Amino acid sequence: MCGKPLRVALAEVAECSFVLGKWLKQFKTALIVVLPKAGKTPEEKTLPGAYRPIALLSCIRKVIEKVIGNRMMEAAETHGLLPEGQMGNRKGRSTEHAIRMVVKAVYAGWSYGAVATLMQLDIMGAFDAIVFTRLCHILWKKGYPM
C-alpha cells in the first residue's frame, strides 16, 4: 500500500545493512513465544520437547532478508555455483522433479543389480549458527560476485 516510497526506503536500509555487514539493533531483537506441540499427552507436556520455541522477528528484517536471499539465489544460479542435485529453493525444481530424479536413479541402479541408498540433508538450521565472515569468504572462494 505504501508503494515506491516504502520500497526505496527498504532498499536503502537493506543496502546499508549489506555494505556494513550489520543489522540495526531493532532488527536483532526477537520475541520468543513457546507453543505446545499438538497431540502430546499430559505426561509428555511436562518435558521440554513437547514445546516449540518460535522467534518473532521484525517484519522489515524479514522483507530485507527475503530480498537479499533472492538476489543471492539469482547470482548463484547465474554463475552456476549450486550443485546440479540441489533441489530446495530453486526455480524449476519441484518436489515432483526431485522424486522423479530419485526414482529414475533407483531404477537405473536396480537394472545393474545394485542396491540403492538415499541420503538427504536438511541444512536449514545450520545457517542460524554460521559465522558471517566465514560464509562471505567461502562465497568469495566459490566465485560469488561480491
Question: Would you kindly provide a brief summary of this structure?
Answer:
The protein has 146 residues and is mainly alpha-helical. It is 48% helix and 8% strand.
Low-pLDDT ranges? none
Class computed from helices, strands and strand pairing: mainly alpha
Number of strands: 2
Strand order across the largest sheet = 1-2
Rg computed from alpha carbons, rounded to a whole number of angstroms: 21 Å
How would you sum up the major sheet? 2 strands, antiparallel
Give the CA-CA distance, first to last residue: 33 Å
Shape: extended
**What is the percent of helical residues?**
40-55%
Structure write-up:
By secondary structure, the protein is mainly α. Helix content is 48%, strand content 8%. The chain has five helices and two strands; from the N terminus they run H-H-E-E-H-H-H. The chain has helices at 3-20, 25-28, 59-78, 95-111, 132-142; strands spanning 31-36, 51-56. The chain has a two-stranded antiparallel sheet. The chain starts with a helix and ends with a helix. The model has no long low-confidence stretch (mean pLDDT 84). This is Uu.00g124790.m01.CDS01. It holds the Pfam family RVT_1. Residues 42-141 form the Reverse transcriptase domain.
